């Protein structure tokens, strides 16, 4: 999932729509399966006069949180336009709702829903999303197992549809050492459902690729057209080249996992036969000769010669008799 977040905001409605379309084009071109926005009304997120976040102030953002959400709230009328443009670009449209009202607006246009980390205890939102009978992803930034249990159990009590969980660190940007990716296999075991990573680190490779190796099947990452654009989400988002690099690495990492069954692969068969050691004659051996290691045979790589018995049968062959003539270099294939 390529997370556009609030990075569609550019100015007027027409400028915002054009920016959002560029983001959709970028996500599609980069190979993402979905592009995700956020849908909210400021009055249904924070309490009145909620003030300024110390966290945001440290990053030079001193505007009140109410004003920030007012400025970045996506007009509902943009939603069908973005969904239509996503369809034209063959990429899945998603948007995270922050209230039941928001969810009602986006539900006709999305195939799956996502619960944001800070909405994990939003009972009414979870109840509504559950009754849509669509797959739901739950992000778990700044959450405890008790809180995740609550959301999952509430969801499971309301729907039989697929639920997925995203490991997430609610820090923007998140430091590599704070990603806590070893939680991923624990989440899979505890909840027996698909698990992924919502990654807020600025590195395009480390978090996503390691998460795939630990069993993640969903990756979400913020992206932007330009990290220097004004707004809270641009500075920790990937640029278009980084997004494409990340997605390519994710696809290859997923391929590299293989089947999980230790077996001789088709790609290994030729060299296995050529190079794995076997019991090979070091001089011509006649039928009836005693087979003696170091005298007339050794444990060698056969190359293109007739391959002998595997070297692990050395003790069974040593001291026995040849049952046929064997040319020097060929393998011992039978004995008595």
Task: Describe the model.
Helix content is 35%, strand content 14%. It has 336 residues and is an alpha/beta fold. The protein folds into two domains: 2-257, Aldolase class I (TIM Barrel); 266-317, no CATH class. The strands form two sheets. Strands 3-2-1-8-7-6-5-4 form an eight-stranded parallel sheet. Strands 9-10 form a two-stranded antiparallel ribbon. Strand 1 (2-5), helix 1 (13-30) and strand 2 (34-39) form a beta-alpha-beta unit. Helix 1 runs parallel beside helix 10 (240-257). The chain starts with a strand and ends in a 19-residue tail after the last helix. The mean pLDDT is 96.
Describe what is shown at a glance.
By secondary structure, the protein is α/β, with parallel strands linked by helices.
């Amino acid at each position: 999932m390529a997370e556009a977040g609030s990075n569609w905001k550019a100015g007027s409605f027409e400028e915002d729509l054009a920016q959002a379309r560029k983001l959709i084009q970028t996500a599609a071109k980069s190979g993402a399966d979905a592009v995700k926005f956020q849908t909210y009304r400021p009055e249904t997120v924070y309490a009145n006069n909620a003030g300024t976040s110390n966290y945001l102030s440290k990053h030079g953002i001193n505007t009140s949180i109410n004003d920030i959400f007012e400025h970045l709230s996506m007009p509902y009328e943009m939603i069908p336009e973005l969904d239509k443009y996503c369809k034209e670009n063959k990429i899945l449209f998603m948007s995270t709702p922050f209230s039941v009202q928001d969810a009602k607006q986006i539900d006709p246009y999305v195939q799956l829903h996502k619960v944001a980390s800070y909405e994990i205890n939003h009972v009414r939102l979870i109840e509504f999303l559950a009754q849509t009978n669509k797959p739901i992803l739950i992000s778990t930034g700044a959450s405890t197992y008790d809180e995740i249990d609550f959301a999952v159990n509430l969801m499971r009590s309301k729907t039989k549809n697929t639920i997925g969980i995203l490991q997430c660190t609610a820090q923007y940007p998140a430091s590599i050492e704070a990603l806590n990716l070893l939680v991923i296999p624990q989440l899979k075991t505890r909840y027996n459902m698909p698990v992924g990573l919502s990654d807020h680190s600025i590195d395009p490779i480390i978090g996503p690729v390691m998460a795939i190796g630990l069993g993640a099947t969903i990756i979400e990452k913020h992206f932007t057209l330009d990290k220097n654009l004004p707004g809270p989400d641009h500075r920790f988002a990937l640029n278009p080249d980084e997004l494409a690099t990340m997605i390519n690495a994710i696809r290859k990492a997923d391929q590299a996992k293989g089947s999980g069954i230790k077996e001789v692969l088709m790609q290994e068969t030729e060299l296995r036969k050529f190079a794995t050691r076997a019991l090979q004659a070091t001089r011509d051996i006649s039928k009836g000769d005693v087979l003696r290691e170091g005298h007339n045979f050794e444990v060698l790589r056969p190359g293109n010669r007739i391959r002998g018995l595997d070297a692990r049968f050395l003790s069974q062959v040593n001291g026995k008799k040849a049952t046929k003539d064997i040319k020097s270099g060929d393998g011992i294939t039978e004995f008595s």
